Amino acid sequence: MTNKQSYADGTISQNEINWLVRRAKGSFGIITTAASHVSKDGQGWEGEFGLYDDKFIDCLCLLSRSIKRYDSLIFAQLFHGGMRAPEHLTGFQPITASRTICKESKSGYTRMASDHDIWRIIQDFTSAAVRCVESGFDGIELHGAHGYLISQFLSKTINKRTDKWGGDINGRSQFLIEIVNSIKNNVPENFIVGIRLSPEIEELNISLEDSIKLIRKVKTMGLDFIHLSCWDIYAPSLQYPKDPKRIAEWITHSIDNLPPIISTGKIWSAEDAQNAIDQGADLIGVARAAIPYPDWAKNIEETKYNPPKAPFSVQQLQDAELSAPFINYMRKWKSFVEDD
Ligand SMILES: Cc1cc2nc3c(=O)[nH]c(=O)nc-3n(C[C@H](O)[C@H](O)[C@H](O)COP(=O)(O)O)c2cc1C
Prior knowledge:
By secondary structure, the protein is an alpha/beta fold. It has helices at residues 14-25, 57-68, 87-90, 115-134, 149-154, 169-172, 174-186, 208-218, 247-254, 270-278, 296-299, 314-319, 324-330; strands at residues 30-37, 73-79, 95-96, 111-112, 139-144, 192-197, 225-229, 261-264, 283-285. The strands form 2 sheets. The protein has a 7-stranded parallel sheet. A two-stranded parallel ribbon has the order 3-4.
């Protein structure tokens, strides 16, 4: 989870390590880091740690060693912001699948990624994954959700290319597929490789129908998990709002032999967690509940567990191992932090 606690030079900070380690101590089985840029031109915001250079390996080793003291697995989330990587932060004109209006670009437009850019970024994802292996991580999650570069390629709105990287969902998913292939060819077999996807994004014209086709295609690639970012596990599909099936069920009910599925979105209580499992998820992800409740995973064994929801006091968040920049960032999430 993005927490903005790292240093401007891309090094992971002790505050960010402390926040993650506290959740490992609280029995979360998998600790996935914040989205972390694999290329210098892919950074999405300040306080984001980087994976684009070997100089980060020492600090990443410190993180993995600290997490492993508590028997959790540590995954890095590999990310490129594409048109959402601000030029004022990276010094580069944002690139994406096609030339597009872009408020993060000084010129007002993105640059269309050339074939050379695309292969360079595939290599950047691969080198970042190899750095994670060298740093003692157990696996990586490719961030293909939420409208960043991989989803920009999947998007019918952004991706207007007519070459092998565009066209129908087969072409638009080619960038993701080449990243997965390249990573899997360069990491040991027991290194965990999964992807996170948003099954639907209205503004980007990413439809459930295309996501089902995409998952049918990637499920045979030896992925260790597919993580569905549902935002709300109880929400119906945008495409079929009258159908009682929830987003995860559309996938788990229509595709056989899936790799393990992780589902995330508004899971707060033990009942919510059970609901996600009943929808066909093998594992559940939590973000917001893990912020005030570092022992959430330990407590979830209690079937009636349902801790109070936001707002949370600054003191409670400090006690949960959040430093000032993270608490300030959480003020941007509506009603999460109590007013001073
Ligand atoms: C503070 C915060 C930071 C987040 N950072 C990331 C991130 O770096 N990568 C990502 O894939 N999702 C990120 N998300 C989205 C969450 O992973 C999750 O999908 C979403 O918050 C819904 O789950 P929840 O209801 O358990 O919070 C973030 C969410 C929050 C609240």
